Amino acid sequence: MRILIVNPNTTASMTEKAATAARAVAASGTEIIAATSRMGPVSIEGHYDGALAIPGLLAELKERQGVGYDAAVIACFDDTGLEAARTFADVPILGLCESAVVTAGFLAQRFTVVTTLERSLVLIDNLVRRYGMGDRAKVRASDIPVLELEDAASGAVGKLRAEIERALLEDGAEAIVLGCAGMTDLARELQQIYGVPVVDGVAAAVKQAEALVSLGLSTSKRGSYASPLPKPFTGAMSGFSPVLKVG
């Protein structure tokens, strides 16, 4: 099977980090294809960035349809554009937050999501509640700008570790969820250090995508995720106009 990893920001090094994490857990018959958005913000930190990242994300999903993929993973923990992508696509689309918190729920009664900046805290907390884990999870911000995770000299890892330690001590966390795609390369090391499950959303989403494809399941096209109605879009959005599907 072929799984598309789409980074909805425009920083290619973050795409490669996510692709590496995906390939590390993918089954032997799974091909990982990585794509970086070509328009939008260099990082997604809050609602404004997320809104402006969605057109680039959808453009990548649309363009890659010609090559073909069996499922796609949106490599942002804000689950940027997830609902729109599920409406647009005919294959399973997974988000990092949903995949990670569902996985953590299999492993622990109480867990903490450790994300980057304070501005993302409420956004992610709302997602966690939407996914049914509000009574079992807390969300913490570690005061790390996303792009600092690409700089080994930034001190970002030290800030992340300090917040994890507070989560274990103050929240009684039994597992940790890494709340940013840029943290994906740290999961194994942090799990060894702290002795609790550390869930990376990229890895979790890839394995869940494989499971859905293997089961022959995809997103329902009845009701909420029905394909967009054909209509003209104007201006810069004209290329996104839905067309009538035949058959």
Automatic annotation (TrEMBL):
<dbReference type="InterPro" id="IPR053714">
    <property type="entry name" value="Iso_Racemase_Enz_sf"/>
</dbReference>
<dbReference type="InterPro" id="IPR052186">
    <property type="entry name" value="Hydantoin_racemase-like"/>
</dbReference>
<dbReference type="InterPro" id="IPR015942">
    <property type="entry name" value="Asp/Glu/hydantoin_racemase"/>
</dbReference>
<comment type="similarity">
    <text>Belongs to the HyuE racemase family.</text>
</comment>
<dbReference type="GO" id="GO:0036348">
    <property type="term" value="F:hydantoin racemase activity"/>
</dbReference>
<dbReference type="Pfam" id="PF01177">
    <property type="entry name" value="Asp_Glu_race"/>
</dbReference>
<protein>
    <recommendedName>
        <fullName>Hydantoin racemase</fullName>
        <ecNumber>5.1.99.5</ecNumber>
    </recommendedName>
</protein>
<dbReference type="GO" id="GO:0047661">
    <property type="term" value="F:amino-acid racemase activity"/>
</dbReference>
